[in-house]
Amino acid sequence: MKTKLLLSALVLFSFIIISQSVFADGLVSVKKIENVNGSIGITVHNDLSTTLYTNPSTHNSSVFKYYLDNSSVSIIKNGSVTSIGSGKDGFVILNASWPQSKYKLLNVTFIDEGGTLYPSETSYPIFAKQGLSPIEVSVTPQIITTDKSVNISIKIKATGESDISSINVHTKNPSYYALKLKSNPTSMAKGSIEKFVFTYEPTGGTLPETVISNTSYALINVTYEYYGFKTTLNLNESFIVFNKNLIDDKLPNVTVWTQKPIEVEKGKSTNISVYAQNLNIGGHDACDLNFTLTSPNSNIKIPIYDILPGDKLVGSLIRPTSPIVTFKVVSSNSSNIAKYNLTLTTKYKDCEWGSSFKLINDVPISIVKQITINKNVTENNNTNLTNAQNVTPNNSSEISKQASQTTNGPSSSPHTSSNFRFYLILGISGFLIMLSIIGILEWRSRFI
Questions:
Q1: Are 304 and 269 contacting, i.e. CB atoms less than 8 angstroms apart?
Q2: Structure pTM?
Q3: How far apart are the C-alpha atoms of 440 and 444, rounded to whole Å?
Q4: CA angle (27, 31, 34) in 5-degree steps
Q5: Which residue has the higher pLDDT, 406 or 217?
Q6: With 60 as the cut, is the pLDDT of residue 30 above it?
Q7: Bridge partners of residue 71, in order along the sequence
Q8: Is there a contact between 46 and 85 (Cβ–Cβ < 8 Å)?
Q9: Does 411 score more than 80 pLDDT?
Q10: Which residues, other chains included, contact 422 with Cβ-Cβ below 8 Å and sequence gap of 6+?
Q11: The predicted structure's pLDDT at residue 424
């Protein structure tokens, strides 16, 4: 009987040990994976009741163990914590390079105080390239109050080495708003760019009477499958909500534009001038302007892509003639002859209240083989210029003649000259007739 009880206890103890190995993944986990100068950095969570050391090379028990593609790896001491307390997170850098293509599988487990290794069943894929990456976020309208709907548009690119499938989006509502509708693709081809659009409508809440503005956060969780693994992209987009009863049109109203069209020869460079204007006269000035110009094409380089001018932007309706910043854009010899869109992001603050704003503009640019000037237009311009030069002396002569006539007195018009001749002839004729009559009368008087 005792033997049976002992065997039952051993079986139960073995089952408990096996069960522990099954639940070991709930005791330690990986919260975040990042590229640290080409090495793999991980944030590890310890949910055990005891502290665990992080370096398995210096400890044989109560220590983490790390595996990449089922091969044990050590950590780099410089930049890694030495231990992680119960219920705490800690950052360590693995002595392993970031994958160059596709992915590597990471497993994290531990050795307990008695030296027992707990196997890990959860694998964390470390992708050479992230499957989805946000490249542009825009929020409208520019000035948001609690009585206006808000639209958040996010351009997301499939930056990985494989297609994306099973896309699902979950959101958490920002303060004062509720999600009205959303639009997103369910799959994306490698290298493609899609818009994820979210519209939030007011819930009826208002800011306190004395509060000018508040920041609302829209939490967006995108899950998708990449290389067959369920992966997550977490986005935390924020925007400023203003108290409509306090702002009184005081906020700066900044508009930004570039010269058009923009062309650059293949293998050469050009300058892009950016103009900015604050249209709110009598309102607040715009401060801390920051202009960032980015290119989606690796063959279009922007050596200095971020510029921070130092001057305030005062309200004015006079359109500026001088650019506020100028970017140099360089086209490589391997550039394709095509049209592209650069992205100009403008950030600024209200000088009085410190509220932040952001504008996003597309900047079209054409890569051409050679910039040519229309020959016909040039010849016509030269001909017109020559004709103008030939006409000028005659015009000057006429002007001088008219000036001379003006100086000497008024000149007779053709109509005035004709009248003068008519009356002169009429007078002479009358005089001759009178002489004839006198002559006849004298001749008759001789016979009386």
A1: no
A2: 0.67
A3: 6
A4: 140
A5: 217
A6: yes
A7: 68
A8: yes
A9: no
A10: none
A11: 62
Give the pLDDT confidence score for residue 422 in this predicted structure: 58
What span, in angstroms and rounded, lies between the C-alpha atoms of 44 and 81?
Answer: 10
Query: Can you tell me which residue has the tokens 């005081």?
Result: 250
Q: What is the 3-state secondary structure (H, E, C) of 166-193?
A: EEEEEEECCCCEEEEEEECCCCECCCCE
Beta bridge partners of 369: none
- pLDDT of res. 16: 41
Q: Which of 120-134, 302-316, 419-433 has the lowest mean pLDDT?
A: 419-433
Q: Which residues on adjacent β-strands are paired with residue 133? A: 157
Q: Is 94 helix (H, G, I), strand (E, B) or coil?
A: strand
User: Given a cut of 80, is residue 383 above it in pLDDT?
Assistant: no
Average pLDDT over residues 57-69: 96
Average pLDDT, the chain: 83
Residue 158 clears pLDDT 50, i.e. is over it = yes
What's the token pair of residue 153?
């548009």
Conformation bin of residue 288: beta by default, left when phi > 0, alpha when psi is -120 to 50: left
Alpha carbon of residue 121 to chain centroid: 42
DSSP sequence for 240-303 = EEE-HHHHTT-S--EEEEE-S--EEETT-EEEEEEEEEE--TTSPPEEEEEEEEE-SSTTEE-S
- Among residues 140, 159, 425, the alpha carbon closest in space to that of 298 is found at 159
CA angle 98, 226, 135 (to 5 degrees): 75
Whether the predicted pLDDT of 10 surpasses 70: no
DSSP for residue 204 = S
Q: In 17-54, which positions are buried (b, 16+ CB within 10 angstroms) versus exposed (e)? A: eeeeeeebbebbbbeebeeeeebbbbebbbebeeebbb
User: Quick one: which of 360, 181, 179, 187 has its CA closest to 257?
Assistant: 360
Q: What's the pLDDT score for residue 402?
A: 38
Tracing tokens 């050479």 back to the chain, one arrives at 128
Nearest to 156 by CA among 135, 181, 171: 135
- Is the Cβ–Cβ distance between 396 and 402 less than 8 Å? no
Which 3 state secondary structure label does DSSP give 212?
coil
Q: Is the distance from CB of 113 to CB of 95 less than 8 angstroms?
A: no
